């Protein structure tokens, strides 16, 4: 990883970065210049070292707009009996290097410093598969401060998220301009203020003296974090080589003293992809290959601290080829964990290569024609992208409970183990070295057991993926514009998609034909931008169970299960509950009717008191036919587990317009909105209200929001803004256009 092309890693100053903001008084101030008042991303502009040395988020007016207030959720204890693959060891860790936003079509844009966007110009990828990620490294152009939306999503799902120290300036660690103790304090302060968990120290091409200094800086950071009570603080080390001795037991101190056995050091390390004989012929370099990964099984190594890097930039199929060397698929011995990176880039290359192949073909099957439409029609880009994405995470079948083993034909493409190093090129059609030849077979789910954080009440999800074409509140459409904001993504289903026959076990090798399909639907939603759609031809032979969430909730007499749904004619929906004391049994509850809500949505609530004292481990939905086989479709807008208590949050305090700027045409305005943070509020919606009309401007978990274009209603001189907590009365402020 010492020479990387710009398309895969862009740690340069973002071109056209927004202008630095002026210091403002606490009261409302209106900008008088003609420049944008968009908050500037932390640590941008000028010499990177000088900017870092002078930066203090507490005095920077832009900092609150890039701060995450979402604390890391506690994950529940593993329960093998309800895993998709019960034989998997849940201690085998999974890690990623992720970009916040990756454009799916058209020219590539760098949107990684964009926290959210309404009226989005581009469709972007937002990560959905947090259940296999223990460590998330914020990758691509964000540097010392991860995108706050990425922090929000990772923490909401119980994962740690690390900023990237990529090839740091020598002054960061050599003490020549600022003592290492001061550097350590500033780095830890960034993590504490912005809400992330530590650093991925990406250190390459160093001298021995540099290596000693970096290890001393890491130790000082650990001491500083411990002194501040940051129990989640984590440092992962990557040095561009596969020699782990630089970290454990570690090089000597700068002054030559041997590093003590108990000296603070990196918590984990990622081994360079060279361990797998990986080496691209262009674009990057790899560390030295390890002939036998078992040579790393030394007493000072805990396998849970070792992540074997799998660079998937040319083709994600490389995962299925080499991950089995480290972790036995579907359960068995493991030498360590897996850390996948640049998978999104690889998926994009697969999609583009597939499109070129279809365009060049003179004979297309029906499936080919459908694939071509998905890849060329902008309205279907999302469908094509996430089909590939789901195969990468859940395996080629798209079902994480399937074994997804390579067929004989796929194994032949992989080749025997002693020649697998030949896959050293990409986008070289026809060449046996082209990594894009490698098929996606095993998914990450075949190596890493799923995690969950659903261990307490209340739990509510609206299946909001964090992007959409419009926005809904309580079934009412309040915005008709594309948007993305990973930071407001709900906790999505634990398994995507674990479908099985309702009346019998799933054959993990062969699967089952004719089951209903599951996916997110972006045309209609109850709250957010998407709902869960279950659809297909439903008859007496294909009653379907959809396993949704892994839980660990003790049921009592007040526990209730709730659903908001729409449609479902011709079938009966059932709620399925699996308990820890009988994991082989699903208790089914018929859902026959519901209270009418807005826009055709219905609400059903069921008391679970008869299961009091038992621990709920799985929540499923089941679908059976009530007549002749026919087309079936139902949308799930909300699923909840509650204790029946009414949730009421305090009205927001301190809601104000910190700064504003009217565009020259007088028909739209930029606003910086701020208020007093309340940790009990899951999120806030910001609305522009005129009479009975409400226009959604955005949603945020935090205490600051930048509105890029507030629309002006014809003839109005004032616009009333509402700040609406997830469950409570709104606060209001009035913006005057004059």
- Note the total helix count: 9
> What fraction of residues sit in β-strands?
25-35%
State the major sheet. 8 strands, parallel, barrel
Overall helicity: 10-25%
Quantity of strands, as a count = 35
What is the overall shape?
globular
Determine the structural class based on helices, strands and strand pairing.
alpha+beta
What does this protein look like?
The chain is built from nine helices and 35 strands. Helix 6 (about 345-360) packs across helix 7 (about 365-375). Mean pLDDT is about 90; it is low at about 1-35. The strands form eight sheets. It has an eight-stranded parallel β-barrel. Strands 13, 19, 20, 22, 25, 26 and 28 form a seven-stranded antiparallel beta sheet that branches. The protein has a five-stranded antiparallel beta sheet with strand order 18-21-27-23-24, with no helix packed on it.
């Amino acid at each position: 990883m010492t020479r990387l092309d710009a398309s895969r890693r862009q740690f340069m100053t973002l071109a056209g970065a927004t202008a630095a903001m002026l210091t403002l008084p606490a009261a409302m101030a209106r900008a008088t210049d003609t420049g944008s008042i968009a908050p500037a991303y932390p640590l941008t502009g000028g010499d990177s070292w000088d900017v870092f040395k002078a930066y203090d988020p507490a005095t920077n007016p832009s900092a609150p707009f890039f701060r995450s207030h979402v604390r890391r959720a506690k994950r529940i204890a593993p329960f093998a009996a309800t895993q998709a693959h019960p034989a998997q060891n849940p201690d085998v860790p999974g890690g990623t290097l992720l970009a916040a936003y990756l454009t799916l079509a058209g020219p590539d844009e760098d949107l990684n410093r964009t926290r959210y966007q309404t009226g989005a110009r581009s469709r972007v990828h937002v990560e959905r598969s947090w259940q296999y990620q223990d460590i998330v490294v914020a990758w691509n152009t964000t540097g010392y401060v991860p995108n706050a939306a990425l922090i929000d999503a990772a923490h909401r799902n119980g994962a740690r998220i690390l900023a990237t120290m990529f090839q740091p300036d020598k002054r960061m660690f050599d003490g020549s301009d600022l003592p290492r103790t001061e550097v350590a304090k500033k780095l830890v302060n960034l993590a504490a203020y912005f809400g992330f968990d530590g650093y991925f120290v990406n250190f390459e091409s160093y001298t021995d003296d540099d290596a000693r200094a970096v290890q001393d800086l890491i130790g000082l950071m650990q001491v500083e974090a411990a002194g501040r009570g940051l129990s989640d603080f984590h440092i992962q080390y990557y040095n561009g080589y596969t020699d782990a001795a630089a970290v454990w037991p570690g090089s000597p101190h700068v002054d030559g003293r041997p590093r003590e056995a108990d000296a603070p050091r990196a918590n984990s390390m990622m081994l360079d992809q060279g361990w797998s004989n990986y080496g691209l012929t262009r674009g990057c370099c790899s560390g030295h290959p390890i002939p036998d990964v078992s040579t790393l099984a030394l007493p000072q190594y805990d396998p849970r601290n070792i992540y074997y890097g799998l660079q998937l930039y040319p083709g994600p199929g490389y995962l299925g080829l080499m991950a089995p060397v480290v972790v036995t698929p579907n359960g068995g011995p493991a030498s360590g964990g897996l850390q996948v990176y640049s998978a999104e880039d690889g998926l994009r290359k697969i999609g583009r290569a597939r499109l070129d192949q279809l365009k060049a073909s003179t004979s297309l099957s029906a499936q080919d024609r459908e694939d071509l439409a998905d890849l060329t029609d902008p309205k279907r880009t999302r469908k094509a992208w996430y089909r590939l994405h789901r195969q990468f995470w859940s395996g080629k079948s798209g079902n994480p409970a399937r074994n997804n083993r390579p067929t004989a034909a796929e194994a032949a493409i992989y080749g025997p183990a002693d020649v697998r190093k030949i896959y050293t090129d990409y986008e070289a059609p026809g060449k046996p070295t082209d990594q894009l030849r490698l098929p996606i077979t095993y998914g990450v789910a075949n190596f890493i057991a799923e995690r969950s954080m659903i261990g307490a009440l209340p739990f509510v999800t609206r299946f909001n993926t964090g992007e959409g074409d419009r926005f809904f509140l309580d079934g009412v459409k309040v915005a008709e514009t594309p948007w993305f904001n990973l930071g407001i993504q709900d906790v999505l289903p634990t398994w995507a998609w674990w479908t099985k026959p309702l009346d019998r076990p799933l054959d993990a090798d062969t699967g089952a034909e004719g089951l209903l399909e599951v996916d997110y639907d972006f045309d209609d939603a109850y709250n957010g931008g998407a709902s869960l759609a279950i659809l297909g031809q439903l008859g007496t032979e294909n009653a379907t169970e959809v396993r949704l969430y892994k839980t660990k909730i003790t049921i009592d007499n007040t526990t209730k299960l709730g659903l908001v749904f729409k449609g479902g004619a011709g079938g009966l929906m059932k709620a399925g509950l699996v308990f820890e004391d009988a994991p082989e049994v699903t208790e089914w509850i018929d859902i026959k009717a519901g209270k009418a809500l807005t826009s055709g949505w219905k609400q059903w609530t069921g008391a679970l008191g008869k299961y009091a004292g038992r621990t709920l481990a799985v929540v499923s939905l089941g679908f059976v036919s009530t007549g002749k086989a026919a087309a079936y479709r139902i949308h799930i807008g909300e699923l909840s587990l509650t204790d029946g208590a009414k949730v009421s949050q305090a009205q927001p305090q301190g809601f104000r317009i910190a700064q504003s700027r009217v565009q020259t045409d007088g028909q739209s305005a930029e606003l910086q909105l701020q208020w007093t943070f309340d940790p009990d509020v899951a999120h806030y919606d910001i609305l522009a209200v005129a009479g009975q009309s409400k226009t959604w401007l955005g949603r945020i978990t935090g205490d600051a929001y930048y509105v890029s274009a507030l629309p002006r209603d014809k003839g109005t001189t004032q616009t009333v803004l509402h700040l609406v907590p997830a469950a409570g009365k709104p606060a209001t402020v009035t913006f005057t256009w004059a």
